[in-house]
Amino acid sequence: MKTRSSNRRDFLKSGAGVGGALLVGADSGNAAPNPQSAQPDAAQPAPDDPTKVPGVPARPYGERSRFERILRTPSPQGTSSGTPLQDLTGIITPSSLHFERHHAGVPDIDPRRHRLLIHGMVDRPLILTMDELKRFPSVSRIYFMECSGNGYRRKGGRTVQEAHGLVSCAEWTGVALSLLLSEAGVQQGAGWIVAEGSDAAKMTRSIPLTKAMNDVLVAYGQNGEALRPEQGYPVRLFVPGWEGNICVKWLRRIKVVDQPYMTREETSKYTDLMPDGKARQFTFEMDPKSLITFPSGGQKLPGPGFYEISGLAWSGRGAIRRVEVSVDGGRIWQDARLQSPVLPIAFTRFRFGWKWDGAEVVLQSRCTDEHGDVQPVLEDLVRARGENWGYHFNPIQGWKVSADGSVQNALA
Ligand SMILES: Nc1nc2c(c(=O)[nH]1)N[C@H]1C(S)=C(S)[C@@H](COP(=O)(O)O)O[C@H]1N2
Ligand SMILES: [Mo]
Q1: Which residue positions in the chain have pLDDT lower than 50?
Q2: Does residue 272 share a domain with residue 169?
Q3: Closest CA to ligand 1's atom 18
Q4: Domain match, 276 and 299 both
Q5: CATH number, position 351
Q6: Does residue 119 sit in the same domain as residue 219?
Q7: Can you spell out the DSSP letters for 18-65?
Q8: Last residue of a domain, which of 280, 303, 322?
Q9: Pocket perturbation via mutation, ligand 1, pick of 99, 164, 168, 245 by most ligand atoms within 8 A of CB
Q10: In degrees, to the nearest 5, what angle opens at C-alpha 161 toward C-alphas 349 and 361?
Q11: Disulfide engineering: 190 pairs with which of 48, 92, 121, 210, CB 3.0-4.6 Å?
């Protein structure tokens, strides 16, 4: 059987396609393409014969190749870290690169001692151990999660990771909250739940019962294994399509109540101050958003030629129906190809073939979700929401490609 690299060499030798530029763009999608990778036979010393040298032995827990270097970017305060969206393939974010946001650190929880309490306006209050929780029928779903502060308006950012890294997409496994609430028996007059975490922040949020009974998960699995501590080990709430902060991590308590509790997170934080001086509360859903991840800020194109523009689109309200790309600063928009699967409330990967003539250009993407909601331009967002606002930042993102191939954030 031929290896991937020998196929690649044959492809280059045959002079098929457009040579090195195609491979650097589509194959590595990397921030710093190595121009030598276009001529492996000529310019690089012959590698040691990998068929003669044993690598790592079988090991109990896998690690990536030592040549792979992509990382999250922790904030200076250590309270968040961004996903390197520009370096990922497909739609799943590896758990080790899932963005983090925590208000007061990551607690170290022994799952054998952890309990989940479900109480309040219920007939049969429950105290569940993790083992008991895992005995309930479970479901696995692929969902994105985005911090409502992602891309915060005045933040800027050189790369897609710095500007928009507080969004990821994973497969989440757990028990439907509706099942646990039915088990507890919700009483007449209940209208909300309050979810509380067991971290120092005691993150607490109110959620309408209609959502709680719809698609909310009490999740203990992430990409096929236990949640990572950063993601809420041993158990978190997962509220599909809504602001990340509602997905309470290290979940210890769900209280069924008759009204929202007006916690810190829904009064002083996570409200949207409007131009008339009033603040919007409970702006739950994340709006449709798309990003070109290649080419994007900080990357450099090696020269004119063919490239496959690629990126991600998502909407908190359902599936992505359409992504359009403009390669002329927004005059002409053309449909990008949506890569299957196109799942509701998940990343959708889009692709668009493009021939760069070497002139300065601004690349943009614009998505539309299944309800017809379209990603707006920045000017329209500012007009609607005023100067004070900064959360739920989903304007069309442009990347400027200069004549030397360098790519910059056109919004910064
Ligand atoms: N208990 C608890 N839950 C929490 C938080 C927190 O600080 N404490 N941060 C919230 C915020 S603001 C976001 S955006 C998401 C981030 O989830 P992640 O770190 O798994 O990406 O978790 C939410 N859940
Ligand atoms: Mo967040």
Answers
A1: 1-41
A2: yes
A3: 100
A4: no
A5: 2.60.40.650
A6: yes
A7: TTHHHIIIIII--SS--GGGG-HHHHSPPPP-TTTS--PPP-SS----
A8: 280
A9: 245
A10: 70
A11: 121
**Whose CA is closest to 381, among 289, 282, 319?**
289
Question: What is the 130 CA–ligand 2 centroid distance (Å)?
Answer: 26
Strand 80-82 with 73-74, pairing: antiparallel
Q: What's the pLDDT at 113?
A: 98
Q: Which of 259, 219, 224, 220 is nearest to 239 (CA)?
A: 219
Our count of domains for the chain comes to 2
Any idea what the CATH number is for the domain that residue 221 is in? 3.90.420.10
Q: How far is CA 401 from CA 111, 246, 296, 342, 351, in A?
A: 49, 37, 9, 29, 18
- pLDDT value of position 28: 36
Total-model pTM: 0.89
Neighbours of ion ligand 2 (CB under 5 A): 101, 147, 244-245
Predicted confidence at residue 53, as pLDDT, reads 81
The strand pair at 100-101 and 236-238 is best described as: unpaired
Q: Which of 101, 205, 271 to mutate to test the pocket of ligand 1 (most atoms within 8 A of CB)?
A: 101
Regarding whether 209 and 176 lie in a shared domain, the answer is: yes
Q: How far apart are CA 37 and CA 172, in angstroms?
A: 37
DSSP-derived 3-state class of residue 130 = helix
Exposed / middle / buried, residue 119 (Cβ in 10 Å: 0-12, 13-18, 19+): middle
The SS3 of residue 120 is strand
Distance from the alpha carbon of residue 63 to the mean position of ligand 1, in angstroms: 26
Regarding whether 162 and 231 lie in a shared domain, the answer is yes
pLDDT at residue 7 in the model? 44
The boundaries of the domain holding residue 140 are 95-280
* 173 and 204 both lie in a single domain: yes
